[in-house]
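Task: fold both queries, return tokens.
Query 1:
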Amino acid sequence: MPSEAIREFIKSHKVQASDGSGEKSLFHWNENDRAWGMRIDRDDPATSRQTGKKVFDEVVDLVSQERGAGRER
């Protein structure tokens, strides 16, 4: 399991709620898949994917720093 710092980093990414109720987390935990996920914006799927990839790469870097290992996938 990732450290609390990494989980908080993932949860820190916010988007405006579509109902105007403020901000909500960009990523959500899917218990069935046991993985983090995010909704893809139908109007701009490429940007959504770029955001997901950027955050993923940052998380990989954070995990490798915590473990003192090189960056691998």
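Query 1 returned. Query 2:
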Amino acid sequence: MKRVERRASTRFNVDPVLCRMVPTGPGLCVLRNVSLNGAFFLNHTPPDVGSKVKLEFTEWPLSGYKLVGEVVRHGLGTFRGFAVFFPIPRPRLLRAVYHGELNN
């Protein structure tokens, strides 16, 4: 049976990029994939579904880049972590992780 994609935007797997929750949450997060309106982060103790999360990237090409979004689901299978929905599309995030540049 063919799997139906629930997301409005296509997601893209990316090279891992470290980030942290602000204020500091439990451990670092690792960016796993992105779309125009969201991202999935690997993390062993994800924040509650429905909570707002502030993220700050700590590695190039996103060093110092900050995002705010809502936790919409947990990934508890192969990749433990959480998915974040951004209320405003983030094309700069996609450009940065795919082209190694983040223009301010």
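Both queries returned. Flag for query 2: The mean pLDDT is 81.
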